[in-house]
Amino acid sequence: MWIVFALLATVFFGMRGIMYQWTSQKRINRNLLLFGVFFIGFIISLSGTMLLNHQWYGWADVAVGLSLGFGSFAANAFLYKGFSVGKASLISILSGLTPLFVLIFAFLLWQETLTALQLVGFFIIFGGLYIIRYSNDISLTNLQGAQWGLLAALFFSFNDLLSKQSTLLEADTFATLTSMFGFGSFLFAMSWLAKGNSSVDDENDVRPKWSRVKTFSCGLMIGLTNVAGMVAIISAFAIGNTGLVSAISGMNILIILLYSRIILKESFTRQELLGLTTAFVGVIVLRLSY
Fold first, then answer.
1. C-alpha neighbours within 13 Å on the C-beta side of residue 74
2. What is the largest CA-CA distance in the chain?
3. Angle between helical axes of 59-85 and 88-95 (0-180°, round to 10)
4. Which of 45, 88, 32 is nearest to 222 (CA)?
5. What angle is formed at CA 250 by the lines to CA 133 and CA 220, rounded to 5 degrees?
6. pLDDT for residue 187
7. Quick check: pTM over 0.85?
8. Cα dist. 74→155, 239, 271 in Å?
């Protein structure tokens, strides 16, 4: 069953990425959309907390949950921004480098040494990024959205480290998720109220502007894939091998790559395809090393 749960997580997280990319190309208020994504997560997590009698056992539990909320707020905002300005294939690969950052910070924070397989994956990823950098002519003056994908990966790794900390505290899962989604919802709601419709009020944009109800409702739908993916991957981790579950769930990158090629008709040069494939293989190697 763990394989089924891991594959479900792959599909749901892949769907989330595809829907992020699709909506990012619409004349839409990003903060209101992401408020909806997190709000439905808050409602479902709160329901789970009440039904399963989960609770917070101290300020440390609350602090970790709130920190996760901030990390998720930043990671999702950067990922969405990346899809709005860059190639879906490039952003999906870069945002999938979370294990790379986790390895680095785990070494710095907890002196966790790298295995031989992790070192191999580490250098494979950098080889792929080197190829991608030259195939796309990416430079400091022409980042093509790459910075947003890397920032998303950085903050997703921040969340992974905090998730580990929550397990060390033996915090109840749904209580932690309630804090995370609740604080994330608050941050996106405040961003929406502070900026209003400024993100879509471009006089030169001829695309039809989405209404607030349509935008928020779409966010709720995307949020369902996010929550479903989290429930699926937690279920897989509970009964399966951690490294294998991570490797399979990481295949959501491939789903987005296929979407970018088949639906978006993004063309790849041989050099770019080689770089993307190499980086993807490196991510899988890293995930298998856990």
1. 15
2. 55
3. 160
4. 32
5. 100
6. 95
7. no
8. 7, 31, 32
Tokens of 28: 């839409």
List, for residues 60-72, the tens digit of each pLDDT value. 888 988 998 999 8
78-97, pLDDT tens digit by residue?
988 888 887 777 787 777 77
CB-CB neighbours of 94 under 10 Å = 24
Report the alpha-carbon distance of residue 46 to residue 70 in Å, rounded: 18
CA gyration radius, the chain: 19
The SS3 of residue 142 is strand
User: Residue 86, SS3?
Assistant: coil
For 111, the token pair is 């002196």
- How far is residue 174's CA from residue 94's CA, in Å, rounded to a whole number? 29
Alpha-carbon dihedral sign for residues 277, 237, 108, 60: positive
Find all residues with CB under 8 Å of 47, minimum gap 6, and list them: none
